[in-house]
Amino acid sequence: MLTGKKIVLAVTGSIAAYKSLLLVRLLIKEGCEVRVIMTSSATNFVSQLSFATLSNHTVYVDFFKDNTWANHVELGLWADLMIIAPASANTIAKAANGVCDNMVLATYLSSKCPVIFAPAMDLDMYLHPSTKHNLINLKSYGNHIIEATYGELASRLVGQGRMEEPENIVDYVKSFFVNSSKLYGKNLLITAGPTYEALDPVRFIGNHSSGKMGWAITKEALNRGALVNLVLGPTSLMINPHANLSIHHVSSAQQMYEASKKLHDHADISIFSAAVADYRPKDVAEQKIKKNDSNFALELIKNVDIAYELGKIKKANQVHVGFALETENEEINAKGKLAKKNFDLIVLNSANEKGAGFKHDTNKIKLISNKAITTYELKSKDEVAKDILDQIEELL
Ligand code: CTP
Q1: Does the Cβ of 274 fall within 6 Å of ligand 1?
Q2: Do 236 and 360 share a domain, yes or no?
Q3: Residue 301: beta bridge partners?
Q4: What is the C-alpha radius of gyration for the chain, rounded to an integer number of angstroms?
C-alpha cells in the first residue's frame, strides 16, 4: 500500500527517538523511501549513524556538511509526507510559530506535502496550556497530530506523553494515504484478461493477454480505498482476496459484456483493460469437430464492442478509460478510439516497444486525453497502474 511513497522522517530531541529507528524499518518494509533529518538535540538520544544505516541515506542535522548545503527545500518538495516523530515540546512550539533555526524546521516550513506530528514529552509539558495551544495552531494550519498515548514516561510518572507506537504510526500513515485518495469509496468496474470464443467443446479462439495490467490496476485501486468489480476473462493470475473486491469470472466477449453491463450503472469509473476478441465463430459445434480430408473454413461474426456500447450510455458523472494496443499510426488510432468509444482517457501501448504489452511484467505507455498526451518510461505494471490512476484522480 505504501510502495514508492517518499517519506521525510524528522527526529527531534526526546527519549522516544529510539522508537523512530523501528519506524524507519517498518516504513521501508512497507516499500517507502525514507530520508531522515534530525535536530542536534535528537542526536544526544540516538546516533545519526543508526538512522543513516537503517535508511541507507545521509542523515542531515545541519544546513552545511563538508562545505555543501543540505537542500531542505528540495527535500520538502521531494516528500509525499513528512512525519515529525518524536515531536518535542520545543519543536512543536517553534513550528507553531514559524521559527526556523534548524534543518527540521526549515524543511517543515518549505514542505508542500502533508505533515504529521507525533508528540512525545513529559505529561505536565503535554498538559501545559501553551503546548495545547501550539498543537491547536499546528492543526489549524492543516497539519495532522497523532496524539501522545498514556503510560509510564521516562520520568517514571504515569500519564499522557508517550509517542504512539511505530506500528500504529504506520497504520495511521496507511489510512492517511487511503483516505486522501480521490478514489476512496469510489466504485470501479475493471475488465481484464482475454476472452475465449468457443469453436467446439474443446477449442476456442483467444489471445495472449495475461490480465496482468488489469490486475495491477485493481490492486492499486484497492490500495487507494476503491471498491472494485473485476470482470475477468480466463487467466492464470494469482488473485488475492480483498474485502472491497468482487471478481466476476467470464469466458466469452458476450459474457464479459453482460457482466459489465449489469455493473456499469453503479460504476463511477470504468476501466476497459480486457483484450476482447473482436470476432467469434458463427457456429459453435456441440461435439468436437472431427478432421476430414478437405480444408476447414471458419466463418467469424462480430462480437459486441463492450467499451463502445457502454460508452453510449455513459452518464456525465461517469469516467471511462480505455486501452489501445497499436502497431502503426499509434497516436492517431488511439485518439480515434478515444473519440469513438467516448473515453475520457486512453492508455496507448505500442506493440513495437520492447518489454511492453501482453505477458510482460513491464509496460511503456502514453496516456491520451482530449487535452494532453503524456509519455512514460518503461516501468513495472504496478508502477504503470499508479500513473494511470493518478491521471484518473486528476480527471475526477
Ligand atoms: N474493447 C471492448 N470490446 C471489444 C473490443 C475492444 O471493450 N469488443 C475495448 C478494449 O478493452 C479497449 C478498447 O476497447 O479498452 C480498444 O480495444 P482495441 O482492441 O485496441 O480496439 P478495437 O476497437 O478492437 O480496434 P482494433 O482491434 O481494430 O484496433
Answers
A1: yes
A2: yes
A3: 280
A4: 27
